[in-house]
Design a protein that fits this description.
By secondary structure, the chain is α+β, with helices and mostly antiparallel strands. Helix content is 16%, strand content 50%. The chain has 2 domains: 26-104, no CATH class; 119-240.
């Protein structure tokens, strides 16, 4: 009995079709693993769907919960040599978010993020409850910050008597040597939060309040702030 003999052209065609089929129906879970997004601290409770149209349940970026989102690999990003996973949750609610997690040759980061990122107790005892992003992008090349842009507004949990921060503190993301820097300032300019994040996930967050009000100064000191002249400082270090 003679076996089936295929021409070289037919063998190449079958291999291409097999690879195309694998790519079209590649599970999102496998694609995220191949992209190595765990290096950015990405984790999830469950991942379903294909690489082009998937769902990520309880997405976490380090210790920051992003909730359940739709996700898909951008074909355009592939032509640029990058794996860009677009994520979105758009239900007309305050916690809506959209943006992308991008991995390329020697670089990793986020792109075009707009929406709310709840922090919980990530930076405790610093009283920052969430970050509101407006077209925020930032990535690391090797161990250094390669680029950062976009506006960030920090919302605070709780209030200190004599301190009005209902509008939060805002600033523009930038690179500061190896670290990604968020220099956030209140409307009065008397309150500042400086957050630095390194590629390793290490962070240093510092809040400074300039005041000559002895009552406010005493309240801040009871909350863990230390005195430096007319300023009260609270510094937190950790790893996401």
């Amino acid at each position: 009995m003679m076996g089936l003999v295929l021409s070289r052209r037919m063998r190449v065609f079958l291999v291409v079709m097999l690879l195309l089929g694998l790519l079209l129906f590649l599970p999102m879970r496998v694609a995220l693993g191949l992209a190595g997004l765990e290096r950015l601290g990405v984790s999830a409770r469950a991942i379903s769907g294909t690489v082009w149209s998937g769902r990520i349940d309880q997405l976490m970026l380090g210790n920051m919960p992003l909730g359940t989102v739709r996700a898909g690999l951008s074909p355009i990003g592939l032509f640029m040599g990058r794996a860009r996973f677009d994520i979105a949750r758009q239900k007309g609610l305050p916690d809506d978010i959209a943006g992308a997690i991008t991995v390329g040759f020697g670089r990793i980061g986020v792109d075009d993020v707009t929406g709310a990122v709840p922090l919980g107790r990530t930076f405790a005892p610093l009283p920052v409850s969430s970050l509101m992003m407006e077209d925020v992008s930032g990535y690391f090349v090797g161990d250094r910050c390669g680029h950062a842009e976009g506006r960030v507004r920090a919302r605070l949990a709780g209030q200190f008597p004599g301190l009005n921060l209902s509008q939060g503190l805002s600033g523009v993301a930038a690179c500061d040597g190896e670290a990604l820097l968020l220099p956030l300032v209140s409307q009065s300019g008397l309150e500042k939060i400086t957050l630095r994040l390194w590629r390793s996930g290490r962070y240093v967050a510092e809040m400074r309040v300039d005041t000559t009000d002895p009552t406010l100064a005493s309240t801040l000191e009871q909350a863990g702030f230390t005195a430096e002249g007319n300023a009260r400082m609270l510094k937190v270090e950790g790893r996401l």
